[in-house]
Amino acid sequence: MCDTTPVLPTLAPFPDILIRESFGPGPNNVRPNGGKGCNQATYLHTDLNGYWAEWSGGKASLWIAPGETNQTWRLCAVSSNIYEMPSPLQGVNNEQNGCIASDWFDRVLTRPTALLPFTQPAGAYEIHLDMWPGLGDPTYYEAVGVTDSAVLDRNLETSGGLWFELGYPNPPASLTEVITLTYNVRVNGRTGPVLATGTAPWTPWMPVNLRYDPVTGNASASLNGVELGSWFAGAIRTPKYIGIEGVGNADNLVVRKLF
Known about the structure:
CATH architecture: Sandwich
Mean pLDDT: 94
CATH topology: Jelly Rolls
Distance between the termini: 44 Å
Low-confidence stretches: none
Strand content: 35-45%
Structural class: mainly beta
CATH superfamily: Exo-inulinase, domain 1
Shape: globular
Helix content: under 10%
Radius of gyration: 17 Å
Number of helices: 1
Largest sheet: 9 strands, antiparallel
């Protein structure tokens, strides 16, 4: 039996928001999944693939990710995220705060990508994601950006039009040491220019904002509320997807128009 009882919000949280995803479990711990939108349980560690986005311009947009038997992005739960606006999928006060995780219990050899269909607006826009990169291997990274490719492993690495990468190239020997992350703002996968690079101290949930104006070709970014600069990125390949990639936890995806 296919239960299509409405679960997702029918209005954007604010008029400027194009995409909103809290990764919340939904009322009664179900969310629509698949082409028919049948409500499916949101058990912890269920793979993200096929679930409908919380808000994507009022139309059904399905998350695309590697399947259950692969290293993939899975539903998770976390204590309250201070950066996150309220969501009807997370209870009255976000007490049922959801997230997604690409786990690193064992050494991870792939860099899975979760994709959400995206139509780039005519003017400037901003992508926000709260990131918590996986620790333990200097090659691990977590990234967010736009892409025109449907590949589900290392997509942004190879095809990211504009993307933000965060990781630990020099992991600390223990968690009692100061943890420092390295960020890179990149164009055209890893073959294009690095617009910015630097370091930042670790904090729980690293809020990332990545901005792009398709009219001027200008880009800018911030990390933990600190502006990193603005740069000329040029004309990127027309995006088809928002991508979240790598190893770590992610929460609070918001894409908004910049008026």
